[in-house]
Amino acid sequence: MSPPMVHPILKNGVGAFIPQCRRLVFHYCERSGSSKGMIEYLKKDLIQFAKEHPHVEVIVTPRPSKHPVVRGLYLNGKDKVVCVRNMQPMDIAGKVALLKESSGNKMKNFKKPIISTTESVRGIWSPFHAAPHKI
Amino acid sequence: MAGLLRSPLVLARSSICASAVRACQPALTRTFLINVKPTKKSKLEQGETINSTIASTPELKDKDSKYRIEQPSPAVVAFSHRMGLNQLKDQTLVMRIITHASHERVGVQTNERLDYLGSKILKMFVVEYLHTKYPKMPTDMQQEVVEAYTRPDTLSLMAKEFGVEDVARWVRSKPEMGHQLTLKTVKASIVRAMVGALYIDQGPIKARDFIHAHFLSRKLDLAPFLKVEEPKRYMSSLMKRLDREHPVARLESETGRNSKAPVFIVGVYSGTEKMGEGFGYSLKMAEFRANKDALTKYYLEEHKDFSLPSDAEVEGTVYRPTKVGDTQVIV
After folding, report:
1. Which residues cross the membrane (chain B) (predicted)?
2. B252, A18: Cβ pair inside 8 Å?
């Protein structure tokens, strides 16, 4: 049996960095009060945001009778949704930045202080190579 | 903004992208109706919006070419910025890159030529890099490593990380056909076409930089590619060829020889120089690993701070050729 095929593994940021957010969808309602800040954000700041981040596709879609929502879609196939009801444009900008910079991965608790796919330069400690123990 | 207009019947989906912003106000690129009964009013409105859409996107026609110039969708513009394809002087190449040969339409250009060119360029620069960095790497192993970097499987995985699936244009082959075209093939062709387009539009150095940034920066453990059946025999032939002393395995450390779980550490020496080290629960196994380690260290010796032959093309750099390594020993 032949061994499984080995693939070169992406280390994003080494060599090139690929921004992981590929699309942001803005949902708003034209009549509800909770969308007031969102509409203001769309009118004032969104075009500037789209200009500054050409690698993100920006879509604006009305969603009547619902709270406003910002949805980020990522290269790993996952998406993240943030409800921005009753928020001021500035707070929405913060949420949008959060979605834009996210990798799209699930939130998880990192239990080890260092996470790396590269093996340690020093190697694993070995009793055979260390200085003998003195009593 | 068209999407913000109070229009309860028409749901306008307006996409803002860099190109649209640059051209004018955000253009209404796609418009569709959702759950609307066809009333007179809605038909009117629909007609109006469609007309305005057509009016807002002026059809650019190049009179010299029989091919029509297609407007990239916002997703394509985002993709091209993500991959740095916005630096291409000829922006029509972007639509061409993402169009697989199966998407054959009148007046639509496909990536067939770019794909072929890209595959050759990709292999060339990968070989150049490996050849210079690992001067002693055996040729058959080098072929396998190049294959690992450039085979369609790898490229389609990379394509997924680039977000190619979103923008690829292709047509699934009909079920009665013998050979089925898969998305994997299409994705690989698009990645190769990107390299080809950069090469043809920006020159070899930009294409090389792209390959170094996206392909060669990836992590690939080379040690498993070195396949040696009998390392001990191989090692002694190698030492003979290099005109050095016969390799000798020496026990460096051991524990629990008579126990259930013994550990031996064996080093392989040529004269006084230690060539490699291995561990194992038997002396034989430790010796095998030590010889293998010695061979890996010898054949996968890395060059640091080397300059590549293509550096001769770059202005202001001095190309210092590296010494071509020895060929593999025949056992």
Report:
1. none
2. no
Among B89, B76, B90, CA closest to B190: B76
Total number of residues shown for chain B:
331
Q: How confident is the model at residue B184 (pLDDT cuts 50, 70, 90)?
A: very high
In a domain, B7, yes or no: yes
Compute how many other C-beta atoms are within 10 angstroms of the C-beta atom of residue B289: 20
* Residue ranges of domains in chain A, CATH in brackets: 21-101 (3.40.30.10)
CA angle A122, A127, A128 (to 5 degrees): 95
Chain mean position to CA A2: 37
ipTM of the complex, rounded to two decimals: 0.90
> Which residues in chain A are closer than 8 Å to B14, comparing Cβ atoms?
59-60
Answer whether B209 touches A (CB < 8 Å).
no
Who contacts B171 (Cβ-Cβ below 8 Å, separation ≥6)? B100, B102, B103, B104, B181
% of chain B exceeding 90 in pLDDT: 64
- Look up the domain containing B289 and give its range: 227-299
The two three-digit tokens of residue B96, written as one number: 């061409």
Q: Looking at beta carbons, which residues of chain B come within 8 Å of A58?
A: 15-17, 74
Write the CB contacts of A58 (distance below 8 Å, at least 6 apart in sequence).
Answer: A23, A24, A26, A46, A49, A50, B15, B16, B17, B74
Residue A42 to residue B221, Cβ atoms within 8 A: no
Burial class (CB in 10 A: 0-12, 13-18, 19+), B318: exposed
Q: Read off the pLDDT band of B69 (50, 70, 90).
A: confident
Contact yes or no for B94/B100 (Cβ under 8 A)? no
Quote the minimal CA–CA distance from A16 to chain B in Å.
5
A98, two tokens:
């959060």
Which of B191, B222, B253 is at the close of a domain?
Answer: B222
CA–centroid distance for B172 within its chain: 23
Quickly list H helices, chain B.
18-23, 40-56, 74-82, 92-97, 112-133, 139-150, 152-162, 183-202, 204-211, 231-241, 283-299
Report how far apart the first and last C-alpha atoms of chain B are (Å, whole number).
75
Q: State the Cα–Cα distance between residues A30 and A25, nearest whole angstrom.
A: 16
What digits encode the pLDDT tens for the residues B113-141?
999 999 999 999 999 999 999 999 999 99
User: Exposed (0-12), middle (13-18) or buried (19+): which is B286, by Cβ within 10 Å?
Assistant: buried
